[in-house]
Automatic annotation (TrEMBL):
Residues 96-222 form the SusD-like N-terminal domain. Belongs to the SusD family. PROSITE patterns: PROKAR_LIPOPROTEIN. It is found in: Cell outer membrane. This is RagB/SusD family nutrient uptake outer membrane protein. Transmembrane segments: none annotated. SUPFAM superfamilies: TPR-like. Residues 348-533 form the RagB/SusD domain. Keywords: Cell outer membrane, Membrane, Signal. InterPro entries: SusD-like_N (IPR033985), SusD_RagB_dom (IPR012944), TPR-like_helical_dom_sf (IPR011990).
Length: 533
């Protein structure tokens, strides 16, 4: 008797246990017993895993919660003041509860679907009739996918249920593992991934390779304060990997420079018009209320008109201004009426609806240039902007922070990053001043690239020894006080998003998000809630 599966991936979403499916006599259908028999089948499965991890065009599943995490920091407002913010508000305003998670529900669920699918693939590919080299390629990529899912889960929710074998519906009795155990599994998977991908070709088409595994190892080592390991892995990527810093910072997010020389891993996109392969991020976080009359061409083809979520704060802009950091500021933030950096001729005064925009600013990294807009018959879901997930500059900053704690040379690496954007080197600083500068360089360099929330939760204020987020948020937080006394002409005149952003932050619980109550209920209360919720 054979169990029908319409799609291998769909099959894994519902369960990994063959016995959980209705049995029907079928011939010529794919099943778990006869799939994973060819290179193409294994590649298709692995490609789908990678797509499901990155999901550049599936805005509600992973893109939206990742953007909401940005909104929970001092870098971004929710931004859109003309539409319901119910999906973003719980986390971004620190009102989140286990029963009111907003879009944090979806990232928890989506990652466990992917973990389950990765487990199935790893088990089946291990016994497939492929060569060892072929198995290593696809199993190495699958191990990275599983590790990345757990990396996000442990940073969002703390210790979570941990499993590395496919489970059936009768096996859903897992309790939470400790964060240390989850990290240990992440490290094991990444080391195994790197080993399996050692001989795999390192190409630039977006496939996962050993350098992505080493780079993520550097990141998770840093997050655990494993300074020696963070230095080892970041240094390995810098000195042995085939990467170099882009000469022009703006080129990192260039629609015509996918998988550039600095990119270690990017979420892929395409503007192919008969397929839905584009990135959703430029729409989700694009300027809302564009009008053709505001472009020199007066042509509707130049209008993208995004949804207006995740708008930069004036506090972030001030951080750039304090360093006279013109290049990174203009590459990260476009203020209403300013020329779009790098697109000055066709968009010399980028304007959008201030009634619908909290801050009068948009994220330049997510911007689609006018020439590209004109080439598209379809724009929603067809935007060709790759999303960098790991790039070389982060490795320099990781090595700098690790060196600081190990007593090594931290200044050289941050000055390499500063030199790229034509800033003078920092000299003669040490101790807490140097550590704060490293933190600041991470903020200025990596804004809107998915790291700010994780950073301010894990970084320690050298004065108090407490997480940096505690000094920023809450009734006495410097970011909250800044906003309440701000005179910014945009933020303070559009109060449909409250000006007291971050005031509800509670350090006793908000260093993690709660576990969704639904997951606790489904576990029969075996899964225990995070403290304070």
């Amino acid at each position: 008797m054979k169990k029908i599966i319409v799609s291998i991936i769909a099959f894994s979403l519902f369960s990994a246990s063959c016995s959980d499916f209705i049995e029907k006599e079928q011939r010529g259908t794919q099943t778990l017993e006869n799939y994973f028999q060819t290179v193409q089948e294994c590649e298709n499965y692995t490609n789908e895993l990678t797509k499901r991890l990155l999901l550049p065009n599936d805005w509600w599943t992973l893109v939206a919660p990742r953007v909401t995490n940005e909104m929970s920091t001092d870098d971004a407002w929710m931004g859109n003041t003309g539409q319901d913010s119910g999906a973003h508000r719980p986390a971004s305003q620190y009102l989140i509860t286990p029963d009111n998670m907003g879009d944090m529900n979806s990232i928890y669920t989506a990652h466990y679907y992917t973990i389950q699918s990765a487990n199935i693939g790893l088990e089946r590919m291990a016994s497939s009739p492929l060569t060892d080299a072929q198995k290593n390629q696809y199993m190495g990529e699958s191990l990275f996918v599983r590790a990345y899912c757990y990396y996000e889960l442990v940073n969002l929710f703390g210790g979570v249920p941990l499993y590395t074998k496919s489970l059936g519906t009768g096996d859903l009795t897992l309790e939470r593992s400790s964060a240390a155990d989850v990290y240990a599994q992440i490290e094991t998977d990444l080391k195994d991934s790197a080993a399996k991908l050692e001989s795999a070709p390192v190409n630039k088409d977006g496939r996962i390779n050993k350098w992505a595994a080493y780079a993520l190892l550097a990141r998770v080592s840093l997050f655990q304060e494993k300074w020696a390991e963070a230095k080892t892995y970041s240094n390995k990527v810098i000195t042995e990997g085939p990467f170099a810093l882009e000469a022009d910072f703006l080129n990192i997010w260039n629609v015509n420079n996918h998988n550039g020389i600095e990119s270690i891993l990017e979420a892929q996109s395409s503007s192919v018009q008969n397929r839905d392969l584009g990135s959703a991020l430029p729409t989700l976080a694009g300027a809302r209320g564009e009008d053709k009359k505001n472009f020199p061409s007066n042509d509707a083809a130049d209008v993208l008109d995004g949804w207006g979520w995740c708008m930069p704060t004036s506090d972030l802009e001030n951080a750039y201004l304090s360093e006279n950091d013109v290049i990174r500021r203009r590459s990260t933030i476009t203020k209403w009426g300013e020329a779009a950096y790098g697109d000055e001729v066709l968009n010399p005064t980028h304007k959008f609806s201030l009634n619908d925009n909290k801050s009068g600013r948009i994220c330049r990294k997510y911007y689609i240039p006018i020439a590209t807009r004109r080439s598209l018959d379809k724009k929603d879901g067809h935007l060709p902007l790759n999303i960098p997930l790991i790039r070389l500059a982060e490795m320099y900053l990781t090595r700098a922070e690790a060196n600081y704690h190990l007593g090594g040379d931290a200044l050289t690496d941050i000055n390499v990053i500063r030199a790229r954007v034509k800033l003078d080197p920092k000299t003669g600083i040490s101790g807490p001043t140097l550590l704060k500068q490293i933190y600041k360089e991470r903020r200025l360099e990596l804004a809107f690239e998915g790291l700010r929330l994780f950073d301010i939760r894990r970084e320690k204020d050298p004065t108090t020894g407490r997480p940096v987020i505690e000094s920023l948020m809450g009734p006495n937080g410097t970011f909250v006080k800044y906003n309440l006394s701000s005179t910014d002409p945009y933020e303070t005149t559009n109060l449909r998003e409250p000006q007291d952003k971050g005031i509800n932050f509670d350090p006793s619980k908000h260093l993690l998000w709660p576990i969704p109550q639904l997951e606790i209920d489904l576990s029969g209360n075996l899964i225990k809630q995070n403290p304070g919720y």
